[in-house]
């Protein structure tokens, strides 16, 4: 009797698991880890770090350097997505998310280099 209950419970668990499994859908046209996401990250990283470094020539204040680098990279990323939206391209919130991650990382790395290397 005990093994029948155990078998029934296992069968019921299997049915519930299969019923709750996600459906197979078409491939995502805008994957989170696509090649273009790496390009967005890299461009934002470079612009943020370059903006920070360029502003170091003009200002001693770290906050001004960081804000300039972040605004430069964010403006470029937002501008690219607005351009895509109105030119028939594929505007993407995921691209903007990777732009934000690249911007934050670029400013952080530039700040760390500035603080501990220079």
Explain the overall architecture.
Helix 3 (62-86) runs antiparallel to helix 4. The radius of gyration is 24 Å and the shape is flat. It has helices at residues 2-20, 35-56, 62-86, 93-116. The chain is an all-alpha fold. The protein contains 4 helices and no strands. It has one domain (33-116). 76% of the residues lie in helices and 0% in strands. It starts with a helix and ends with a helix.
Tell me the number of strands. 0
Number of helices: 4
Point out poorly predicted stretches: none
What form results from the Cα inertia axes? flat
Kindly state the percentage of residues in helix: over 70%
| Integer-rounded radius of gyration | 24 Å
Care to give the gist of this entry?
The chain is built from 4 helices and no strands. It is an all-alpha fold and 118 residues long.
């Amino acid at each position: 009797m005990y093994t029948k209950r155990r078998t029934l419970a296992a069968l019921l668990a299997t049915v519930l698991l299969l019923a709750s499994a996600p459906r197979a859908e078409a491939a995502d046209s805008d994957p989170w880890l696509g090649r273009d996401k790496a390009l967005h990250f890299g461009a934002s990283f470079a612009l943020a770090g370059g903006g920070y470094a360029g502003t170091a020539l003009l200002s001693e204040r770290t906050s001004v350097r960081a804000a300039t680098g972040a605004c430069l990279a964010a403006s470029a990323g937002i501008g690219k997505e607005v351009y895509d939206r109105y030119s028939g391209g594929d505007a993407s919130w995921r691209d903007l998310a990777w732009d934000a991650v690249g911007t934050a990382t670029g400013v952080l790395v530039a700040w760390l280099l500035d603080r501990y290397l220079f």
